[in-house]
Amino acid sequence: MPQSLSHVIIHTVFSTKNRQPFLKDPEIRNQTFAYVGATVNTLGCQSFMVGGYWDHLHILSTLSRSISQAEFVKEVKRSSSIWFKHEYGEPSFSWQKGYGIFSVSDSRVSDVKAYISNQEAHHGKVTFQDEFRRLLRAHNVPFDEKYVWD
Questions:
Q1: Residue 90: burial class (beta carbons within 10 Å; 0-12, 13-18, 19+)
Q2: pTM for this structure?
Q3: Which of 15, 51, 86, 105 has its CA at a distance of 20 to 30 angstroms from the CA of residue 59?
Q4: What proportion of the chain, given as a percentage, has pLDDT over 90?
């Protein structure tokens, strides 16, 4: 086969360092999500949705065949951190070191979009840590609690 083709959909999740509520203001949150979505697209991936809450974000996107998961997250975090610090004058802003990436089938894209859209209501009841633990368990990702948070 002379052509390399792929269609990999991922749900990426990470928080601000120490879960600081840098995204508490809805305008800042929405602008940050828009910036992250544009960054995803410049990486050759397709952003379907970016959302989240005061201390974390979710990205639903494709993963281009020309970039690894680690490179994808590294570039999204790097670019958005530089932008956020400059845009909002927050020199202490940073993302946590780790992240979670989960595969999503085409048939579940609308479910994940709905989940991301409902973050504000969801986090009225559930912390980011509990949400992340649930995602890890739902996707059968083994983890050690002492290495998940920073």
A1: middle
A2: 0.95
A3: 86
A4: 87
